[in-house]
Amino acid sequence: MRTRPLKVALLGCGVVGSEVARIMTTHADDLAQRIGAPVELTGVAVRRPSRVREGIDPGLVTTDATALVKRGDIDVVVEVIGGIEPARSLITTAFEHGASVVSANKALLAQDGAALHAVAEEHGRDLYYEAAVAGAIPLIRPLRESLAGDKVNRVLGIVNGTTNFILDKMDSTGAGYQEALDEATALGYAEADPTADVEAFDAAAKAAILAGIAFHTRVRLDDVYREGMTEVTAADFASAKEMGCTIKLLAICERAADGGSVTARVHPAMIPLSHPLASVRGAYNAVFVESDAAGQLMFYGPGAGGAPTASAVLGDLVAVCRNRLNGATGPGESAYAALPVSPMGEVVTRYHISLDVADKPGVLAQVATVFAEHGVSIDTVRQQGKDGEASLVVVTHRASDASLSGTVEALRKLDTVRGVASIMRVEGE
Amino acid sequence: MRTRPLKVALLGCGVVGSEVARIMTTHADDLAQRIGAPVELTGVAVRRPSRVREGIDPGLVTTDATALVKRGDIDVVVEVIGGIEPARSLITTAFEHGASVVSANKALLAQDGAALHAVAEEHGRDLYYEAAVAGAIPLIRPLRESLAGDKVNRVLGIVNGTTNFILDKMDSTGAGYQEALDEATALGYAEADPTADVEAFDAAAKAAILAGIAFHTRVRLDDVYREGMTEVTAADFASAKEMGCTIKLLAICERAADGGSVTARVHPAMIPLSHPLASVRGAYNAVFVESDAAGQLMFYGPGAGGAPTASAVLGDLVAVCRNRLNGATGPGESAYAALPVSPMGEVVTRYHISLDVADKPGVLAQVATVFAEHGVSIDTVRQQGKDGEASLVVVTHRASDASLSGTVEALRKLDTVRGVASIMRVEGE
Question: Which residues of A touch B319 (CB under 8 A)?
Fold first, then answer.
């Protein structure tokens, strides 16, 4: 075993960073054995140096992250700051000064992954980011290595723990969205400003990363259709139950049936209770991967939290250090397929639509005609009358999102349709 | 991209080998892009050359596997023959002649993994074997790479599809063992001689491999406690149901609470219906991994079959080829921890014991005294009388296997105990 240590710079020392530092210290011997050389925490860049950081030598702490990554003797930079800047500049500078990088930064990878991979490649360095998607769950490595000889057709997953906690709570207690969100906030599962989670920006970034790797195609954050889950109601859950379904916020990356294009989207959807994703509880994450040869695989585990995310970061750190000792690099960006990313209108799936309609003869015929005119085939209809009003629940066969949108637009123009109470996609069948 | 192809020799062209060859042909362009160089199927060693092999150039087929691996120009040997010999000699010869090896051979890896790794290392070559455990499910790579910075404490899994199919059938239809086995055989899930599956030799080999990787310790097949599932009865399933459990054949690799030793075992066990492994149906496999930082992870998918196993083989092939182009090797054997493997007697778990006893006063007191004398604490007792006889179902708290064995031995000596109808461990709580 080499005795000269590999030098690691840690950018950020919050919930994840402090766990990374702690494990690097407590498991130093194991890490050295597994890597083939000791690793040394050489510097820790933080914003607030005055905060006490248990177990971290105060002499390592600096507020000058740029100077740290420019030292020139750093082997690996671990970036757990998050956000676009200064993370992006620091990572770029790290590559330019000879370091490899391990990052947990989904937003940055989703937005600028291609550019960062290019800089890494230019300097012959690694960029690893297992922790950016689904916390501790090994997902990036299985997709880009284990399934490297297979053809992935679909990735379907729960990749945001906060929203899964909220939806699970609504499902199990009948609570409304706000009540469930309040509980998630009180328990620390939701942040004070929950926008990134509940409006699905976080899940969309992960979908972009997963789709890119799964399909060997650049998928940018802007390519991902995004719909949050703030408008999911207790009534939606009641409807889902009647169909033998529950509601999950799903990230769905699909290859078109003809193989010529891909789509990526994030939205709430009904899935059958018999689907393994339906029983993913609390803040857990789980991702289904469907491929030609392997068939259906599922990966399940904690999708967030300091220690789980640190586990993923350290797995990458070991791999990157091994590569370093080998004088090699791991797999870089693989975007050779360069498939077009189709817009949401071309996505084909099933829909559950609740309409408030006038309770009089002929309404169903009118509604059915509109669906037919737009080429959307109806699977089931359920009509319920109440006080002169009625509700009509339509579940369709598979149709394109564009056809469905056209149908809904036309339905809204009908005099007999008082309102469209909800539209939800039905997945996982 | 390099234009000179990497040369691959395929040993064995049965269910898995023919799928490997097929995918290498149909996905040649993708594989080349992902590796960075084309791969060429240079030779296929088979026992019966007369069998028609669709899509394989007859000019590549040979019966002389030894000559093929001795050619000296082979970059990667893919071994899907199975069994100990000639696979072991061929793999050794392959390393000696400069090739890296991808194998799906669980029996060989469990028995001689350490020796084969040593030869690979001596010659600076890779030995990869993702397909040896749980078919297409990425498990070896996550354990030895993704979790390389974590401390794995437990691996708990369903790693044999044949027995899971049989047990699932018994559970869902109330069928007896023989009836369920017959159906598995008819459907092609069980082989004509099902011994390796139903007596858990197959699962024990996988447990040895998983324990070795998880604990960085050599665990040989002989170190694994093994109990088949041929004696599981419909009555056992009825008992399990009463406890809110089902029965699965589990491979369990554990680190002792003090961290100073490990155990590996394979046996049927009751697990709560609420445990995710309880809902693994048919011939599917699933493995739970518990570690310090990541917490609980689960990996699920098809555990056998030509295409799924080929997917795992090809993932390894891509990795090994990339290493080859990099002039590097991936992680080799990691056995530095060298923890002692404790015998079954030291395993601590819960037990479900059914006794046939005389239906008279004082029997329960006698039985309870025997448990107490052996230091086995009782959780619940259920007594049922029938025609002068009675049955007593005891569920214990956690106790060592040695204490439980002593208890059962003493119970058998009691006049009032007519027989021990079944003993089953209770896991996953």
Answer: 145, 148
